[in-house]
Each structure stands twice: as C-alpha cells, then as structure tokens.
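seq as requested:
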Amino acid sequence: MYPDSIGKIAEDIFSLPVSSVKMLPVSGSSRRYYRIFFSNGKTIIATKNSEKRENKAFLEFAKHFLAQGLPVPEILYEHADEQLYFQSDLGSDTLYDFISVNGHDNEKTLKYYKSAADYLLKFQFCPPPDYSLCFPRDRFDRTSMMWDLNYFKYYFLKLANVPFDEQKLENDFISFCNVVEKIPASFFMYRDFQSRNIIVSENNLYFVDFQGGRQGPLQYDLASLLYDAKANLSSEFRKKIFDYYIEKLSISQNSEIEQFSKYYFHFVLLRIMQAFGAYGYRGYYEKKPHFLQSVPLAAANIKELLGTIEFGKDFPELLKTWEYIASEFSSDNSQKLQDGVLNIEVSSFSFRKGYPLANPDHGGGFVFDCRALPNPGREECFKTLTGKDTLVSEWLSTKNEVSFFLDNSFALVSLSIDNYLQRKFNHLSVAFGCTGGQHRSVYCAERMAKMIQEKYGRDIRIKITHREFPF
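struct tokens:
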C-alpha cells in the first residue's frame, strides 16, 4: 500500500484533509508505519501489517492497557481488512535516542530508566489481557525457549562460523530449559521491553510494540531493558536500575525476590542469545548490515557476564560458544576511539556477487554504485587490466563523469568522517561496486583512499580491500 492511498483512507475516515504522509524508518519487522499530517496540524500514525493475528494482539492489548491507565497508544480506527489501523501519535523520540545524545551518566537518564522500571512492574502486575489473543504463542514456555535457542544456533552460530558440537549443544539447550522452565511464569511478559520501544515526550514515557506479549516470567523484561546491546549501559548503571526494581518489587511481592535474583542472569543470557539470533537473521541472512553493529556490544555483555555468573559450568558446550563469542566478536570499545585514530575500510566489489558483508565493528558507512560511469572494461586493451593499472586509471581520470562522481562521494564521506572523529567513533566503511568489481570500483576505491589520506592524515587509518581481485 502506497502512502497516497493511506492518506486517502485517512481523509475518508477522519473527514480531514491530509497534507502529507511520511513513511517511518523500517525496523526489523514486516510492519510499516506512516505518519499522517492533517491540514490542521494534527498527526496520527497508520500501521500496515498483513499478519492479522499480530494486529489483533496489539489492538486488544493497547485497549486493555490504556483502560488500566498505562501510557500506550490510543487506537483510533481499525480498517475492515484487519491489516491497517490508526493510532495516536506519541512522537518519534525514543529512550534510545535520548541516551544516544545524552549518555546514561546523568540524573535525567537515571530518572527515565527508574520510571521505565516502575511502568514495567505495572505491566507485569496489572490485570492481565486476554492471553488467547497472544501471537505467536500465549506463554513463554519450553517451546518458546527452544525457538529462541535454535534461532541463536541457526542464524548466529552457524552463519557466523562459531564452532560447536551440535549434539552437545542440543543437550545443553535441553538442560538450560529444564532449569528456566521451572521459574514462575504467570505474569505479563512484554517480550521486547527495550529503549527503542519507549517513547520520550514532554518528559513522560510511552510504550509501544507489545504485540509479542504473553504470559511469562518476571526476569525476562528487565533483562531486555538493561542488556539491550545498542543502549550500551554500564554495569554500574544496570545495577542501580536492578536494585531499584528489586526494591519496588519487594514492596508488594516480597516472596518473588529470592527466586528472581537467583535466576535473573539465566534470563539475561537467554535474552542475549535471542538477540544474537535476530542480529544474524537480519544481518547475515537478510543482508541488512546495520543489525550487525550490535554484535560487538552484545558480545561485550557476554564477556562481562562470564566474569559474574557461576552456572556456566552446568552447560559446558553452551559455555564454549559464549566464550568464543566473547573472545572473537567483542570489542570493549567497539565504536570508540582506542588510539586517537579513526579506522576507515575502503573496498571494491562486484554487484554480480552481491553486496559486501558489513564488519560488525563498523559504526556505519557508504556503498556507492559505479555502474553509471564510463566502463573501461568495454575497451579491448583494458579487459585484462584492473583499476589499479596505470593505463586504466589514466583513462578514467580523463572522464568528467568520474571526477564529478568522486568529488561528490568524497563530500558525503567527509561529512561522516568529521562527525565520527568528533564523536570518537572507531570505524567507517566506504565501498564501491561495479559490474565486475575490476575496473571502475577498484579505481574509485583507490582514489577515495588517497583523497581521505591527503585530507585527514594521522587522524585516520585506512585499509583498502578489493574483494574480487585481492592484490
């Protein structure tokens, strides 16, 4: 469904002229969100999703929680096709956006996280919604746990080439579930209670994306909030919020405290493994490299946990995978400057062989398409040469289109380099693709590397990679 058609539907439903419709950034789900701007200045959110059962869960949960006084979106209209609905616009600024700008070492962030913990307890202990509406499952039971563990195995461990003995790992999965399935699980579990699903507006918090909610244990949602990899909270900050949650829990549910604390880190690791599965599925399998940016941060969390937990020895093969991930994928300062130098990876590739995989350490980057440039590969004398050869580079350097392309590409890259240096990021990637990855992309990568080096000198460190011709 196109934005214009959604705008027309909104006009008909709300009897107000629509001035514009903006599609919001796509996340990891198949849902599509649109902000609708009416001529009177009001805005609402439209959601399009073909999964009707998921829509039903969200709509009924939203109505239920709003009736309980919780700050969730108001459902304004449900379309007859059950695939489109309209809700109140709570804004675009998330708690993650706030800490990305302000960090977590301040009183306001601490206040927001304590408020989030307060609301979490309200979600968990208010009268529950109708669990028969849950999607895809009505409780976080052994089956759900095994789904998450296999998600971790098939979409991260296997795709990232983490070594393991499959039968031994399966045995540990069974043993792990034997432990955690015994934990009381009669509470509402939000499932994805993390900073990007918490809206900050006028110093208040609002909550979205609870359509995966179900009956489950208390520990999982606090683990989701505090071990959200991209939030990158410090261990000291996590402890403050954990202690605050325990203090509040003890007021009305003191009998839950001992068991909550005893098995909390089991659920922390279960949540982290589920997240690794999501990073691998979206990043390695679906080729959405920005999901891999969370890998080193999540691996650093595992590295920290290995120095805290004592139950790892109960799951020896699983422990080996945790230790391998902590060793091979973590970077204690994955996006921070380690030695005052920004590392920039400049590469070339062939579109015939697909986009290059993102390095999980990279904070961001560019992919430029060189296929609109003059192609020296069509000249017989250049067919066996590459963009590094003098004859090819001299030929390309005489083409105005190539100079224009490189100058404008460099202007864009420079914006990021200046910003990354100021914010003390550690990595940036710049990739050039052409048809065969032999002439234009190689030349542009070499020229870009030289232009960057000449401008930034000792502030950066460049690595050049030519995927199709590793000379």
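The chain has a mean pLDDT of 92.
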